[in-house]
Amino acid sequence: MATDNRPLRIILADDHPIFLIGLKVVIEQNERARVIAQASAPDELLAKLREHPCDLLVTDFMMPVQDQNDGLRLLERIRREYPALPIIVVTMLNHAGLFRSMLALKIQGLLSKASMADELPAAINSVSHGKSFVADSVQRSLLEAADYGPDTLVALQDLSPRELEVIRLLAAGKSVGAIAAQLNRSKQTVSAQKVSAMRKLGLANDAALFIYVQEHGLV
């Protein structure tokens, strides 16, 4: 962490240049914080972490590059290699299951890009003093899903074959009615299979479902 004589050294990671610029501007409004390195891909981030000792990592959750687009695996690797490094994740996602899984990795800060300008300075202040920071929007998502989804993510292979079939067809843009007609099932049955799959995956609404299927290559 920063001392009285040294600014807080921060590494930034995001695959969108505009967000990298925005993150840097917001962070360096605090005269005691300094961005020492930036990365736009997972491998680049890992290299920057090796090259530049830092006090805090601020990173996007997903930085797709070739076959490596699993944000949780990247965070797991960083946590293994740098167990004491404070990490703030900034994301566009609204997925309670992913939020729970990130918090289980002892991610100290979790906030939305939509509220970055307002919440990032507060998150950095909290995390730099050894406290956690969970944005209001993330807290709402977790509370709304508390009685809906599981505590952690369930893998796709844990869905029943019929649930997975429905999820794939939904990902292809088909309506519940169209899926029912294609599979020769009732709308009620298809709807129940959709709801069951979403509960298992920790997805609280259709928007979260479509983000999930895109992340997992189902579209």
From TrEMBL:
**Keyword Lipid biosynthesis in record:** no
Query: Which keywords label this protein?
Result: DNA-binding, Phosphoprotein
Q: Which residues form a coiled coil?
A: none
* Modification type 4-aspartylphosphate: residues: D60
Keyword DNA-binding among record annotations: yes
InterPro entries per record: CheY-like_superfamily (IPR011006), NreC/VraR/RcsB-like_REC (IPR058245), Sig_transdc_resp-reg_C-effctor (IPR016032), Sig_transdc_resp-reg_receiver (IPR001789), Tscrpt_reg_LuxR_C (IPR000792), WalR-like (IPR039420), WH-like_DNA-bd_sf (IPR036388)
- Name one process (GO BP) from the record: regulation of DNA-templated transcription
**Residues of the Response regulatory domain:** 9-128
Task: List the SUPFAM superfamilies.
Answer: C-terminal effector domain of the bipartite response regulators (SSF46894), CheY-like (SSF52172)
- Residues that span the membrane, as ranges: none
Domain of life assignment: Bacteria
- Domain HTH luxR-type, residue spans: 152-217
PANTHER family xref list:
TRANSCRIPTIONAL REGULATORY PROTEIN RCSB (PTHR43214:SF17), TWO-COMPONENT RESPONSE REGULATOR (PTHR43214)
Which protein, by its recorded name, is this? Answer: Two component transcriptional regulator, LuxR family
Which organism does this sequence originate in? Answer: Pseudomonas abietaniphila
